Amino acid sequence: MTPEAWTNWPSREALSRAGRTDARRWLNGGIRALVLGALLWSTFSERPVVGWGVVAAVAAVLLTGFLAWCFHRTTLRNDLWSSVGLLVLLMGGAVGARHGGFEIPATVLWCGCAVVAMERLPLIAALPVTLAALGGFTAYNQDSWVTITITTAGLLLGGYVLRLAAEARGNAQRLLAQERAALAAEAESAALVERARIARDIHDVLAHSLSAQLVHLEAARLRIEREPRGPFRDQILERVVAARSMAREGLAETRQALSALRGEMTPLGDYLRELAAMDGAEVVIGGEPRPLPAEASQTVRRVVQEALTNVRKHAPGARVLIRLTYGADEVTLDVRNSGGKGAAPAGLGSSGSGYGLLGMKERAELLGGTLEAGPGGPEDPDEKGFNVRLRVPA
Asked: CB–CB of 324/331 below 8 Å?
């Protein structure tokens, strides 16, 4: 046996009740109730107890149960001196019970202290405590030396067997946890591989197509600008410029989606500032920024995109404030505009991603969040403009 085996505590899995089935929990509870009932019965049947003696006897049994519970908790914390001290108190209670004429409760306490010390303490402390408990049991026992020897040896061996059984259960729990972690890592790895494949397909098809459209639209814009000014030329140029802007935004959103699929999204605050810079919006970050789950982060990004698209369509020229607040267990996004100052470009009012307020609300509800949208600000409903507020757990 190695030196560490003498000084190490049993594992936390072995000391705790983790991994026990419901049937075993019921069995353990039944055994405890049976032992408590036997103690109470033996206390009152072994010798007459009347008057305040009944109260004292019941209090002693309850105190014993409380000290045993405290011993269980201190061993979970690997607090050696407190654990040994509690066992010394219990053995002292056994001596008091024996001098008071209660032989059966005293015997149960000595034997119980011997067994739990072997089961739950480091061996270097368990052996002296167990020998002390068995010594008290031997000193007050009137049976033959053969019976006492067999009983003490059986208790010593039983405590060690319980220790080995608890360690085996703890090892099984650790192996099970490791297997579950390995399966989760394998599933996550497979998901990342599949997401990377999807990202490559999107990049090869959609991103290349949008990049080619941008090149052709830029060439068309330069070619149209060389034509003589006129109503028709200006209208065509306006449409081409709007189409180029939408293609650029679509390419930026596609790149964001690809980064999300690869797990390489830029920090949310940086993304909001980049997005706001294109529209002249203001960004305010409240609370302590922290990384968000991918679903929550993606929802915030999509809601901001849709809200800014709606501002461009329905309130061009409006002053826009984007406020992101990190709470204890949620994030809150407010996108508020102060009201438009002009008409939207021709055709822009009917354009867009098709996501819409309804889609934003459904996406938030899938995550257990809420989305509110309507005229006014979050504090003043009569304020001019429009406000979108998103709350998602994160």
From this structure: yes
CA-to-CA dists, residue 193 to 188, 240, 256, angstroms:
9, 39, 18
Q: Using CA of residue 55, residue 58, residue 60, residue 62, what is the dihedral sign? A: negative
The more confident residue out of 326 and 154 is 326
Question: DSSP class of residue 352?
Answer: S
Tokens 């000290």, located at residue? 67
pLDDT in tens, 286-300: 988 888 887 888 888
Mean pLDDT of 355-371: 81
What is residue 325's predicted lDDT score, i.e. its pLDDT?
92
Q: Which range, 170-179, 197-206, 258-267, 326-335, has the best average confidence (pLDDT)?
A: 326-335
Residue 266 has, within 13 A of its CA and on its CB side, a CA count of 12
Phi first, then psi: what are they for 305, rounded to 5°? -60, -45
Q: What count of Cα atoms within 13 Å lies in the side-chain half-sphere of residue 173?
A: 17
Per DSSP, the three-state class of 282 is strand
Q: For 296-354, where are the E strands, in sequence order?
A: 320-326, 330-337
Q: Tell me the C-alpha distance between 153 and 133, whole Å.
A: 13
